[in-house]
Amino acid sequence: MNKNSMNKDRLIIFDTTLRDGEQSPGASMTSDEKIRIAKALEQMRVDVIEAGFPIASNGDFEAVKAVASIIKDSTICALARAKQLDIDRAGEAIKPANSGRIHTFIATSPIHMEQKLRLTPDQVVEQAVAAVRMAKKYTSDIEFSPEDAGRSEPDFLCRIIEAVIREGATTINIPDTVGYNIPHQFGNLIKDLIERIPNSDKAIFSVHCHNDLGLAVANSLSSVLSGARQVECTINGLGERAGNASLEEIVMAVRTRQDVFECNTNLDTTQIMNCSRLVSGITGFAVQPNKAIVGANAFAHEAGIHQDGILKSRETYEIMRAEDVGLSSNKMVLGKHSGRNAFKARMAELNIEFASEEELNEVFANFKSLADKKHEIFDEDLQALVTETSTELTNEPIKLVSMSVCSETGETPNATITLNIDGKEKQSAAEGGGPVDASFQAIEKIIASGVELQLYSVNNITSGTDSQGEVTVRLEHDGHIVNGQGADTDIVIASAKAYVNGLNKMIAREKRTHPQRGKV
């Protein structure tokens, strides 16, 4: 029986937030942050987690290895170019995993083969087959991607895919690397490949679509209708350029339209909102209010005729229940009188674990401090507390000690900042166009980092004038880009925290080679 037919009821979800999503400018994550996200993905029952690109740097290698050591229920995948060193590094990184996969790739479009690889088609096929052969030393779960398949010649795709399946590739991923394809075109490509390749029944066909034309989800779903049984996607559609196919949109589209799709996922969709908030908080990439599924307005109804219909029957204007994606948990859970046990229990319900008693004590202390400023503490506040506390507990060279800001009508705003730098306190004052600008200028007088501020963004974590403000800054220096995040009920303090966080990330940022930037 055709393997694709055997698995038609199961759609494999391959999450690449930790690898492709991390390639968003400034979205790099620490090993601890990757583990937090991986645990949330495991809790959601994601089938495959692509944890990173081990050859890119020692940091990437260690992060993949750490995730592989901790995650038990999801397959852990490592990306590798079709090269011996890459594959050996990937194989070593996934060694601790209960279930490990190596995902190897090589470009197959004429422009990539000629201009980038400078290899003939015969050489590309030979290198691809050799890569699969090398990967078999480490695992029997091998995925192969012909990079830029969306612009590759179908005849050549058939040739190289048949060869790698014959060698032992068990998943064939067809990437629309540059987001060039249109749904009916891409769906037809998947259908044709499955029909034309003699041994296509020996592998699961997968797709990995980029969102340059806003069609990543549409292209992915078209491919599923054409026989693909794995979709590669990211939380919140995170990814370089315009991003990747959004996991939450793929999963909920398939689940909601079971009259159209002959397959479904095994995901616990009630964990979607929690994962979305976690990824947004760690990366600093805010979710737009009208984002499908996870946006703040995704289940909001303002038009009177809609409200009337909803009150009479939910199905008149809602095709999904908010509870199905975990939105019902968006409620006030704790306050200033809440004790340690209630706090710890709610954290456990949010699948937040603490690495040590010290970390728990620090987060609880910060929670109490926040509760003194803010009457109602929501789940989003708790997520932000954990992210910020984990930053505080790291040995960062620069710490914000105190700040004083003055801003009044008719006067130039000024700020006085005290920083602790490697154990020594330094203070500086500066004026600026506003209190935030003055604060940044004062910090720069002390640090003299030479960074360029590329982005300054403010989002309220919850509603209300006492809400914590979450600030994201994007800093660039010498070609390196980082995002810094800070949260506080005082937006100026949150801004200073974000800037200091970004400076620490810039200092600690290891130069990562990212050969070919790990594109798929």
Overview of the molecule:
It is a single chain. The chain has 17 helices and 16 strands. It is an alpha/beta fold. It folds into four domains: 3-291, Alpha-Beta Barrel (TIM Barrel), CATH 3.20.20.70; 299-325, no CATH class; 331-392; 396-508, Alpha-isopropylmalate synthase LeuA, regulatory domain (Double Stranded RNA Binding Domain). The strands form four sheets. The protein has an eight-stranded parallel barrel, surrounded by nine helices. Strands 11-12-13 form a three-stranded antiparallel beta sheet. Strand 5 (142-147), helix 7 (154-167) and strand 6 form a beta-alpha-beta unit. The protein is globular and about 75 Å long. The two termini are 30 Å apart. Mean pLDDT is 88; it is low at 1-7, 301-312 and 510-516.
User: What does the radius of gyration come to?
Assistant: 24 Å
Give the CA-CA distance, first to last residue: 30 Å
CATH level-4 homologous superfamily of the largest domain: Aldolase class I
- Strand order in the largest sheet: 1-2-3-4-5-6-7-8
Tell the overall outline: globular
Number of domains: 4
Percentage of helical residues? 25-40%
Number of helices, where a helix is a run of at least 4 consecutive DSSP H or I residues = 17
Q: What's the CATH topology name of the largest domain?
A: TIM Barrel
Per CATH, which architecture of the largest domain? Alpha-Beta Barrel
Total beta strand runs: 16
Contiguous uncertain segments of 5+ residues: 1-7, 301-312, 510-516
Main pleated sheet? 8 strands, parallel, barrel
- Secondary-structure-based class equals alpha/beta
CATH top level assignment of the largest domain = Alpha Beta
> Which whole number gives the mean pLDDT?
88
What proportion strand?
Answer: 15-25%
